[in-house]
């Protein structure tokens, strides 16, 4: 597959482009709004062409798909233009800054006959797939609760618009909580119904949005989900737990970009480690599934619909934290879950 990068981003350089090349994909061009940055980025990452014009990148015959990793407010308009140009789209999270925009992106890609996927990496992890399989097989019985610990430290190199980007979706909720939502939906196979949350600013920096949040959500079937997300916790381990009537799954170090982590199952027979044989790079797994979907073989691990649901959860958490109310999670353009998603 031949790619055009829309955005000269850190995530593309450090994670996605290396994964593309390990799969034998080509990176044909990169778009940056700064000519100087674009040329330097292209040189540093062995990309033959840099441009400042989206139409120029989309008009290239050696671009089959685009990876959009610009700042959040640009995801929606750039996806619409890419779809109209007949290019498949892998878009960074959050898919957009509003649920309506996300569903417009989904509709545009469907109408154009191109694949839309969201770059939520966690459902591609072997640990998460193992947890999902255990839940689906009834290993814990009826699911009752999920706890997610995803409080990490925001590296210096990323302490830009995520903290100060007014209008760009700054804050930990749209950066991290949306990942939790994608992971929990994939594991449970259920949608969130409502959210409550408390958010604060804890970091030693000037920020326009929250950098730490605790949320409490109710999912379909009255499954309760608790999350703690932060940019401010430097030394903790991440984790995810699923508790059911017949057992519990406890997973440690599984909310990261790397394929490590330990999964343990506890039930009436005792405690045992779950053998996770799939330790593949998360981005490789996601890109391979995306390429398969482009060929008509399967679907992306996290498609546009999944990304829209994750965004809806994050926006409900943000609204709940700002308002002090319990907020219903939007379920589509008209407030309901679209029939084709059921």
Automatic annotation (TrEMBL):
GO MF annotations in UniProt: oxidoreductase activity
Domain Gfo/Idh/MocA-like oxidoreductase N-terminal, residue spans: 1-120
Identification of the protein by name: Gfo/Idh/MocA family oxidoreductase
Entry-linked Gene3D superfamilies: Dihydrodipicolinate Reductase, domain 2 (3.30.360.10), NAD(P)-binding Rossmann-like Domain (3.40.50.720)
Residue intervals of the GFO/IDH/MocA-like oxidoreductase domain: 128-250
Taxonomic source organism: Candidatus Nephthysia bennettiae
Keywords: Oxidoreductase
Pfam families recorded: GFO_IDH_MocA, GFO_IDH_MocA_C3
């Amino acid at each position: 597959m031949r790619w055009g990068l829309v955005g000269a981003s850190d995530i593309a350089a450090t994670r996605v482009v290396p994964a593309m090349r390990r799969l034998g994909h080509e990176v044909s061009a990169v778009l940056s709004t700064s000519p100087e940055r674009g040329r330097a980025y292209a040189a540093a990452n062995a990309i033959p062409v840099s441009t400042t014009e989206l139409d120029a990148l989309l008009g290239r015959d050696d671009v089959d798909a685009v990876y959009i990793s610009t700042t959040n407010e640009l995801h929606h308009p750039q996806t619409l233009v890419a779809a109209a140009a007949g290019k498949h789209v892998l878009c960074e999270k959050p898919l957009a800054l509003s649920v309506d925009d996300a569903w417009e992106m989904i509709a545009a890609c469907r109408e154009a006959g191109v694949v839309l996927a969201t770059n939520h990496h966690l459902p591609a992890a072997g640990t998460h797939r193992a947890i999902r399989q255990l839940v689906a097989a009834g290993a814990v019985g009826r699911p009752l609760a999920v706890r997610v610990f995803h409080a990490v430290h925001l590296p210096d190199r990323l302490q830009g618009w995520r903290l100060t980007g007014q209008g760009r979706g700054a804050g930990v909720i749209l950066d991290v909580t949306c990942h939790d939502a994608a992971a929990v939906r994939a594991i449970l196979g259920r949608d969130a119904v409502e959210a409550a949350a408390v958010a604060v600013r804890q970091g030693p920096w000037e920020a326009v949005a929250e950098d730490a949040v605790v949320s409490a959500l109710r999912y379909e079937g009255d499954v309760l989900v608790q999350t703690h997300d932060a940019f401010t916790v430097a030394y903790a381990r991440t984790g995810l737990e699923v508790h059911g009537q017949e057992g519990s799954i406890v997973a440690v170090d599984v909310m990261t970009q790397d394929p490590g982590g330990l999964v343990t199952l506890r039930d009436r027979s005792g405690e045992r480690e779950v053998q996770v044989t799939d330790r593949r790079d998360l981005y490789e797994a996601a890109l391979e599934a995306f390429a398969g979907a482009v060929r008509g073989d399967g679907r992306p691990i996290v498609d546009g619909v999944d990304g829209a649901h994750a965004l809806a959860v994050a926006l409900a958490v943000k609204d709940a934290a700002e308002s002090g109310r319990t907020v219903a999670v939007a379920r589509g353009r008209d407030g309901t879950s679209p029939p084709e998603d059921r």
